[in-house]
Structures are given as C-alpha cells and as structure tokens.
C-alpha cells in the first residue's frame, strides 16, 4: 500500500443539495481522483462510525451505517454479507484475481482459498456473532481503505476479536471489486514484556551473526527447509529405529508375561481363592458350633 497510515481528525464539509443524475461508481472514483490530483497528497483520514458497537444493519441498535462513498459502500456491503452469512453476495464483491494476506497464514491466499476462508468464517460465526466496524480510514488513492473492527455476540463485545483490515479495490465495468485484502487480527496470547525480551534476543543474534542473519531475512523458508533436511537425514532414522526397538522390546515383554508371569498370577489367584474358601468353610463350622452351645444354655 503506497499511502501513509497516519490518522488525522475528520472534518465534515457542507454540500449543496442539488438534484442531478447519480454517477456510477467508476465516475465517482474518476471524479474523486481528479480532485485529489489537483492538491498535494494528504494522509489517510479517519471516518469514525457513529456507534462503534452498533454493528452493521442492526435495526434494533439504531441501524447505523458508514458515511457514503464508493469504498465505504463496498466495505459496508462486505461486512453486511459476512453478518448475513451470504457467501454468494460476498463473492460478487471480490475480484477474480483477489489475493488475501492474513496474519494467521504464512503465505497469501488465492481467490479460491480466500472464498473458502470467508465461508468457514461465516460457519464459525454462526447466527449470533456479528462484525462491528469501529473506524474506516481512506487513503490518498480512492480505491484504498482500512477498517478497524471487532466481533460481537448478541450485541456484547467478544474479547480478543479486534482487528484491522486493509482493502485495495479496482473497477470492473461499473462495479468496484476488492482486489487485495490484508487482515491483522488481535492475538489472544499477550506476551507483554516477553515480546521485547524476544526482540532483544533476536537482534542480539542478528548483530552477532550478521551474515547468517542476512541469509535468513532474504529467505526465511531456507531455515525451515534446512530443519526438514536435518530431520530427514539425521533425526528421522533415529526416531524410526527407536520406535521399532520399542515395539520389539514391548512385544518381548508381553511374551514373557504370557509365558511366565501370567501362569504364576493365575496360580496365585487360584490358590488364594481355595485358601479363603477353606477359611470361610471352617469359620462357618465354628460359628455353627458356638451357636448350638449358646442355644443349649439359653
């Protein structure tokens, strides 16, 4: 994204209420871009939602919507589709060449995996979870915007569900479609000061081994590939041998148990059963004699 991400205060500008033929989205984008080209570039401006926890298209909570513009209309429709669990309507907002970068994934998702992700997201949200937009920011380019959001369950904010999404759109015919998405979501793990300690340790290693650090930063996957090779050539044979040895060892133990231990245990159990049966019979006879003696004296 070429535009800066610095927020400035939002000022409402008066407009004349003239009756004219509404412009298409492409015409609106062209007109807005032409106006912006006459001035020096400005940073992203923030558009706060009137009620941050009001959700989208929620009539019983005021039905607040975003200020109208081509990009905010796309964002409004996008999150409304998610809240309505309407994957067909959401698919119509996504460009065929759309790619999505998500902090939960190591690699960008293509159009197929992007649609699959949003379909699974709708399934995970079920019927009571909704997106609520806290703030929308416009970039210098009229086709770039960012949205800060959180999730709610029956109007109550769900902890650890805040996030920020960046959108880049492109016009296809008269429609404005989402071409790139970059999603940052809040992590439920809060390392607090540990994150700074980890950063200190990593930067120490980088300064200590600058050549290896440069190689790693140029190709981070090389470290994973090296570990995989190390595992296959060294660790995997050892692990396979240990597993096979453990299987043979415990098979031998089971055989020993069946041949020697199990007969002894069965014999001891049988002996104990016969012994306590004998004791029970003798005790019964003693009790019978005592009962007869007691009966004679009574």
TrEMBL record:
<dbReference type="InterPro" id="IPR037401">
    <property type="entry name" value="SnoaL-like"/>
</dbReference>
<protein>
    <recommendedName>
        <fullName>SnoaL-like domain-containing protein</fullName>
    </recommendedName>
</protein>
<feature type="domain" description="SnoaL-like">
    <location>
        <begin position="75"/>
        <end position="169"/>
    </location>
</feature>
<dbReference type="Pfam" id="PF12680">
    <property type="entry name" value="SnoaL_2"/>
</dbReference>
<dbReference type="InterPro" id="IPR032710">
    <property type="entry name" value="NTF2-like_dom_sf"/>
</dbReference>
């Amino acid at each position: 994204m070429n535009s800066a991400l610095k927020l400035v205060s939002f000022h409402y500008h008066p407009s004349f209420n003239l009756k004219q033929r509404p412009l298409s989205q492409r015409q609106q984008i062209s007109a807005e871009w032409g106006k912006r080209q006459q001035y020096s570039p400005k940073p992203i401006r923030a558009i706060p939602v009137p009620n941050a926890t009001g959700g989208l298209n929620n009539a019983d909570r005021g039905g607040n919507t975003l200020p109208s513009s081509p990009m905010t209309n796309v964002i409004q429709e996008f999150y409304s589709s998610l809240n309505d669990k309407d994957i067909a309507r959401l698919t119509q907002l996504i460009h065929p060449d759309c790619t999505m970068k998500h902090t939960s994934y190591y690699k960008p998702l293509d159009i197929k995996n992007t649609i699959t992700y949003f379909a699974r997201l709708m399934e995970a949200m079920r019927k009571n979870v909704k997106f609520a937009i806290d703030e929308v920011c416009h970039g210098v380019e009229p086709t770039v915007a960012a949205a800060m959001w959180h999730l709610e369950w029956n109007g109550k904010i769900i902890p650890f569900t805040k996030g920020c999404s960046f959108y880049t759109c492109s016009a296809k015919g008269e429609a404005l479609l989402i071409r790139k998405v970059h999603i940052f979501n809040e992590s439920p793990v809060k390392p607090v000061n540990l994150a700074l300690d980890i950063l200190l340790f990593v930067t120490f290693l980088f300064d200590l081994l600058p050549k290896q650090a440069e190689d790693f930063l140029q190709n981070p996957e090389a470290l994973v590939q090296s570990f995989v090779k190390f595992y296959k050539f060294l660790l995997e044979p050892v692990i396979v041998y240990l597993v096979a040895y453990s299987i043979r060892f415990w098979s031998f133990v089971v055989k020993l148990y069946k041949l020697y231990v199990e007969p002894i245990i069965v014999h001891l159990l049988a002996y104990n059963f016969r012994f306590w049966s004998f004791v029970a019979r003798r005790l019964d006879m003693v009790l019978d004699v005592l009962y007869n003696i007691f009966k004679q004296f009574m």
